[in-house]
Amino acid sequence: MTTPAKNTVCLWYDGCAEDAARFYAETFPDSSVTAVHLAPGDYPSGKAGDVLTVEFTVMGIPCLGLNGGPAFTHDEAFSFQVATADQEETDRYWHAIVSNGGQESACGWCKDKWGLNWQITPIALTAAIASPDRAAAKRAFDAMMQMGKIDIATIETALRG
Hints:
By secondary structure, the chain is of the alpha/beta class. It has helices spanning about 15-25, 85-100, 125-130, 135-145, 150-160; strands at about 10-15, 30-40, 50-60, 60-65, 80-85, 105, 110, 115-120. The strands form 2 sheets. The protein has a 4-stranded mixed sheet with strand order 1-4-3-2, covered by helices on one side. A 4-stranded mixed sheet has the order 5-8-7-6.
């Protein structure tokens, strides 16, 4: 038995933690499903033998998926922010999430089909908004505010003025 991480993100699901964890493991690098634990007895939202928890890693971050039932849902107060190197990587992750039953949102945000929120954020966007040229940073920020999925070329054009 391995020693558990000192700090693990626990994500609540309504019976679909294993499906979500397997999707993340197939979609993102440095991601995997490491263990699936079955309930030893009946519990409020399940029966003995149902998948109770799933240990997985998303891009190096240890997570635990808990099939806790419908009492709680994900919201925008928690998200994974994925820093992307280029438009191809941005498009790949965005489309993987959205085309698998997810939803587009604004400013690089999208939601997967299990309700978990993701920020697919190109490094170029982060650098543009942090530019010491505050007028250029504002132009890039204003361009971002008009987007769903981030378009790096548009951000770079706004940055240049």
